[in-house]
Each structure stands twice: as C-alpha cells, then as structure tokens.
Amino acid sequence: DQRLTGEREGRTYLLEAGQVLYIESVDKRTFLYTGDSVYETPLRLYELEERLAPRDFVRASKSAIVNFGRVSSICPDLGGRLRLTLENGEVVGVSRQYAPAIRKKLGL
Q1: H helices within the chain, ranges in order?
Q2: Cβ atoms < 10 Å from Cβ of 49
Q3: Among 7, 16, 24, 84, whose Cα sits 20 to 30 Å from the Cα of 70?
C-alpha cells in the first residue's frame, strides 16, 4: 500500500494513503489531513498528485487534492463549482477548472 510521511510536533509519522482525507497546500507548505490530525509533508502538491494517481485521489483545486473514496456527499455550488463533504464533515471546494473531471468520475 502507498505510504506517506507527515510531520507533527517534531515527530515523523508513516501514514497509509487511505487514512488521508485530503491534502492542501497553504503558503508553499503542504498538509495531509486525516480524520483527527494534520501533518505537514515535505512533498509538493504535484508530487503527491503523481504518487497518488493510481489511487482514488482527485485534484479539487490548485491548492487541494481529495481522497475520493472518503467523500460522503457532493453538492453543486455557484459558478459551476462543487462542494465535497468528507466523512469527517469537512467541506472542500472544487474549482470550476477541476469540476468537470469529478463529474466525469461520477458519470454525470
């Protein structure tokens, strides 16, 4: 299985890719979000996108990648965007640029 490394409070953790709900890049730093924690990773978003391509991860915006297998609901948003609600209740926005790929994945 695909493993990712993430740092939190000075410690490095090995995470299974399936544990990660979504990945976000903020101020040139990349974070892995699990159900209960946030980890910083040294990898860039595009590197994670390539690494996780065979798995069920999809690009949601220029700054986010979502584990599609952990999405509980999808809602249309203004301007052709989408909102994905994850298993833990967090909402991730999908930009217009990436919404068609997600609709295609759903068969819409």
Answers
A1: 45-51, 99-106
A2: 15
A3: 7
**Cβ(32)–Cβ(39) under 8 Å?**
yes
- Cα–Cα distance for residue pair 82/90, rounded to 1 Å: 14
pLDDT in tens, the chain (108 residues): 589 999 999 999 999 999 999 999 999 999 999 999 999 999 999 999 999 988 889 999 999 999 999 999 999 999 989 999 999 999 999 999 999 999 888 887
Q: What pairs with residue 99 in β-bridges?
A: none
Instruction: Enter the tokens of residue 95.
Output: 């930009």
- Is the pTM for the entire model greater than 0.85? yes
Give 3-state DSSP helix, strand, coil % of the chain, rounded to 5: 20, 45, 30
CA–CA separation, 80 and 100 (whole Å): 9
Measured CA to CA in angstroms, residue 106 lies from 41, 53, 74 at distances of 29, 17, 10
